[in-house]
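User: quick one, fold this
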Amino acid sequence: MSKLIRPTYPLEVNIFILTIIFLLSCFFSHEMFENHFRDRDDTYKGYAGMVLIGVAVLLMVLIVWEEILFQVKLQQVDGGLIFRNHQTKLITQLIIYGVITTIFFFIYFQYQVKLLHFIIWVAVCMVPPVIDKIISGINNYFDFLKLTDTTIAYKNNELEGSFDVKDIQNIVIIHDTGQMVHKIELLFLNNEKVTIDIDEMELEAFYVHIYEFISTHYKALLTEVKNTLN
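Assistant:
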C-alpha cells in the first residue's frame, strides 16, 4: 500500500506548461537547420525537424521534472514505512533518454544542421537528465530506509543493516543548514554507533516524513538533535 505525499500540479496546468515549453523549443530550434523554407519540401521537412526538437525537449523535461510521471509516494508496511525511490522510475527514465538520443541521431543524419547550434541543443536535452537524475538514480537504485515500531533497516550503496529498536538506547538526528534531516545516528546499548547518511540516498522528498516518524514513534529514544554538520 502506498500514500501520495507530493502531488504534481493539476493536469491542465501541466499540459499548459508543457505546451509552452514545446512551442518555444520548436520556435528557437529554427536556427539549427540549414533549411531556409524556400520551397514546400524544405518547409515540411524543416517543420518536422523543429517538432522533433520540441519532442526531445519535452522528454528531457519529463525526466528532470519527475513529479509529472513519477509522483512521490510512501510505501506503507506493517508497523511503519519504507522510504525509497521507484525502482521502475530509473528504467523508464533510461528508455526516455534513449528516445532523446535516437531523435538527435535521426536529425543529424537526415538534416543539414549548423553544428554549433546542434551541439547546443544536444547539450540542453541530454546533459541535465544525466547530471540531475540518471546518475543519482543509478547510484541509489537499491537504497531504502525502513522505519517500523520494532525495526530500523537501511541500504546505502555498500552500507546496509537491520536493527531492533529494543537494542537502541539513543537516536540522534543531524540536520543540514536548511533544518532538514541530514543523517541519523543510532547508539546501541553496547555503545556501538551506526550513522545512516540520509543525504546520500536520494530521499529528499521524504525528509519531513522521516523526521515526523522518528519524533513520533521513537520519541523516548530521541534525546538530542544537532543543528550542525559533522
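User: anything notable?
Assistant: The mean pLDDT is 87.
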